[in-house]
Write a structure and sequence with these properties.
Layout: H1 14-24, E1 29-30, E2 34-37, E3 42-53, E4 74-78, H2 90-98, E5 103-107, H3 113-118, E6 123-125, E7 137-142, E8 146-148, E9 151-153, E10 158-162, E11 165-169, H4 174-196, H5 201-207
Parallel strand pairs: 3-4, 4-5, 5-6
Antiparallel strand pairs: 1-11, 2-6, 3-7, 3-10, 8-9, 10-11
Helix pairs in contact: 1-4
């Protein structure tokens, strides 16, 4: 079993994972992406797609890659952060939901929000806009490295989304990151417990070394 599927990690928030990434000196927090629909917590292996402006005289394609995505994957679409045309719409949302794909993350925008809401399909993006990307952009590569702003995403990296946004974890470091995040999770639980039983917040934080949990080792 992939380590990120271990039930013990399901308690982790992206804030805790972000702290673990900071402690380990890893990038991975994708700024500017937020949930626009669907269940807010997603986790899965990245299926990466990079788009580029359509060649002059060519016919641009947007969504045929969906046939190759596996159940449980997170689709990561890099449209260069463009907000003037979409690379994800209602048909794709419904197909992805039918295929039990975990969710879609877009360095760009989506459309047909109502259809995604109706089928409760999770999408994280930089916003919503109605204009099609067809004949404006084309799929340039599938399964290669892409970016979510300043965060690089390789095919197979672990993508986690919740109310706070998106984090990306290198697959080879996933267990290390999750274990460190668990340390923060349990420390925060102990701090709350201590305060509720008479400690000051300052004393509880000092006792558990809270201020060092995010500092790079």
């Amino acid at each position: 079993m992939d380590c990120w599927k271990d039930p013990k990690y399901q308690v982790l928030s992206n804030a805790e994972i972000s702290d673990a990434l900071d402690f380990l000196g890893l990038p991975g927090t994708a700024h500017g992406l937020s949930a626009v629909t669907g269940a807010h917590r997603i986790v899965g292996s990245a299926f990466t797609v990079r788009f580029a402006p359509v060649d002059i005289g060519a016919v641009g394609t947007v969504g045929d890659f969906i046939d190759d995505v596996r159940e449980g994957d997170v689709i990561v679409l890099d449209n260069g952060g463009r907000t003037d045309c979409t690379v994800w719409g209602g048909i794709l949302s419904q197909i992805a939901k039918y295929k039990n794909i975990a969710g879609t993350v877009i360095h760009g925008v989506c459309r047909d929000l109502e259809e995604a809401v109706e089928c409760s399909y999770p999408i994280f993006s930089r916003g919503v806009f109605m204009r099609t990307g067809k004949d404006r952009v084309q799929v340039e590569s599938v399964g290669t490295s892409v970016s979510l702003g300043e965060v690089r995403v390789n095919s197979g990296d672990i993508v986690v989304g919740d109310h706070d946004g998106i984090v990306v974890i290198p697959r080879a470091r996933a267990e290390e990151v999750f274990e460190r995040a668990l340390t923060t999770h349990f420390a925060e639980k102990e701090i709350l417990k201590a305060v509720m039983t008479g400690s000051t917040l300052k004393a509880a934080r000092e006792e558990l070394g809270y201020h060092t949990l995010q500092r790079r080792k």
